[in-house]
Amino acid sequence: MKGKLITIEGPDGAGKTTQVKKISEYLRTKGFKVLVTREPGGTSLGEKLRKLLLTLEGESPVPEAEALIYAASRAQLVKKVIVPALEDGYIVLCDRFVDSSLAYQGWARGLGIKELTDINGWFLKNNWPDLTIILDVDPSQSLKRLRKEKDRLESENLEFHKKVREGFLKVHSMYPNRTRLVDASQNPEHVFESVLFEIEKSGIIKI
Ligand SMILES: Nc1ncnc2c1ncn2[C@@H]1O[C@H](COP(=O)(O)OP(=O)(O)OP(=O)(O)O)[C@@H](O)[C@H]1O
Ligand SMILES: Cc1cn([C@H]2C[C@H](O)[C@@H](COP(=O)(O)O)O2)c(=O)[nH]c1=O
């Protein structure tokens, strides 16, 4: 049986990891086989690339290099982890995926959403997510939720993070069927109810 790929997206501090945990626990109680992974990372090579991307030390990649390193981590994850799990019938829950590249590199860094779609489409082929939940919240609220020491992307200014949010809203308007917007300004339990509602409504799995 073919599984499903569900990705959770949104600006920094939107509550993605919190919701991934809640969804995975819920789906497991319903008898689904669930695999949780994340981006960048999820493979040993991907975790090395993650460190390289998020460190504040040394030379920062130019936007084009940044986009390609995120894509490299994704290509490795898709081939080594996601596709085999889907073939084995797993629900794969991925904490960030291709839409982060469209919003951060495509829109906020200004490289172009179409350009990022093409670069990623080259290796994703038909492995685009079955469903993407975008947690939508104003960055001036979500950034306050984060720990004190910030990584390279989190350290960008508020204007950049506002562009990221704008990027996700654009992605939603471009892919209104695959992506669902959830108000993430509420408490985690309230957000989880909305997330479950959207998963149910999408019809990709029966819960
Ligand atoms: N809806 C919420 N309201 C308030 N606080 C929240 C909410 N969801 C998560 N948090 C808290 O905010 C912090 C960041 O949450 P979490 O790690 O889930 O966000 P994230 O979107 O995965 O962050 P990042 O972008 O850094 O990966 C945690 O301390 C978490 O407990
Ligand atoms: C996949 C992906 C991620 N990013 C950015 C978004 C975040 O700032 C970091 C990842 O850190 P997190 O704690 O896991 O949220 O990387 C990006 O710019 N482009 C991407 O494709």
TrEMBL record:
GO terms for biological process: dTDP biosynthetic process; dTTP biosynthetic process; dUDP biosynthetic process. GO terms for cellular component: cytosol. The keyword ATP-binding applies. It catalyses: dTMP + ATP = dTDP + ADP. One of its GO terms (molecular function) is ATP binding. Residues 8-194 form the Thymidylate kinase-like domain. Its EC number is 2.7.4.9. Keywords: ATP-binding, Kinase, Nucleotide biosynthesis, Nucleotide-binding, Transferase. The keyword Nucleotide-binding applies. ATP binds at G10, P11, D12, G13, A14, G15, K16, T17. Belongs to the thymidylate kinase family. Phosphorylation of dTMP to form dTDP in both de novo and salvage pathways of dTTP synthesis. This is Thymidylate kinase. It comes from Tepidanaerobacter acetatoxydans (strain DSM 21804 / JCM 16047 / Re1). The lineage of its organism: Bacteria, Bacillati, Bacillota, Clostridia, Thermosediminibacterales.
